[in-house]
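Sequence and fold
=================
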Amino acid sequence: MHRGVVNTGTYDNRSVLDRTHSPVCVTGVFAEAQGTLPKGLIVAKNTSDLYVPYAPSATDGRQNPKGVLTEEIDTTVNTSASIVKHGTVVADMLLVGTSDTTSAPTEDDLSLLSDITIYAV
């Protein structure tokens, strides 16, 4: 008999998507070497047109949200992941930050999402 460890991580099956208003999702290409980005992270684009974490205080384009990450992505291994571009998302699942530090979005962050037709409920 062989014994092994199947999974030592945690599994979170909660969805970022809220089905109140059907989401429009796209596959986005992320900048490499950003670490593991969590689902629910608000994302923007950098000057190379690649997805990166939204940074409200930036002045290089990262201050403009472009979507919400629907799944965790380890950018050291993979650079493609699903992003909500339109529709409703679960407000409690939204995050602002990087792979190291995240926090809940502010009302200003949620307003910017609403401006691009992503509604937190």
Summary: The chain is about 5% helix and 30% strand. The domain at 17-120 is CATH 2.40.300.10 (Virus Head Decoration Protein; Chain: A,). The radius of gyration is 15 Å. The longest helix spans residues 107-115.
